[in-house]
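Kindly go through one protein, given below as sequence and tokens. The question is how this chain folds according to its tokens.

***
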Amino acid sequence: MRVLDLGCGPGSDLVAWDVTASDEVTGLDININNLAIAKARFPKRSYLRGAGESLPFDDHSFDRIISGVALPYMNIQKALAEIYRTLVPGGGLSLTLHAPAFTLAELVHRAIPKPVPTIFRLYVMANGVYFHCTGKTVGFLRGRTESFQTERGMRSALDRLGFENLSFSWKRGPAGAMFFVSATKSKAASSSPAIRAA
């Protein structure tokens, strides 16, 4: 199985994602230092530098795409469209995402009373609310993007592109509650997403 680890960071075991040693794993991240660490840790995998909003892969390149808490830092609608394009028909998507409580904790414990971090965290909160209502995000200064995600927002974003078999769950982890999302690309789908009005 061809698997893309989107926003791979310094690489990880991936057993929790049900990725096996026989799977062909490609990691993608924007941070060159993380990629160097990942290559040293997992030399049998391929690692490339790139962004989720413009994946450097052909249509139908992957059977599965996984992403551990990377999508919140992307333009979600653009990244999901690229994920859709690069998945084979019937391919699977598995994500972990930020809950609203994570963003609120970042605001209260790390930003306030510092003015610039507080302004940014307020943007993240507002962007999360916007995503909840529309399934879309908006960028901040210099193209930086961040938001929290909700089931309603993810359902809207995934439905708009034509993903099927949506599944949402919450699990407790060492860093608090984690939001898990899975979906599949329609077996009858073309490479380009048929974006529906929402």
Q: What stands out?
A: The domain at 2-97+149-185 is CATH 3.40.50.150 (Rossmann fold). The mean pLDDT is 90.
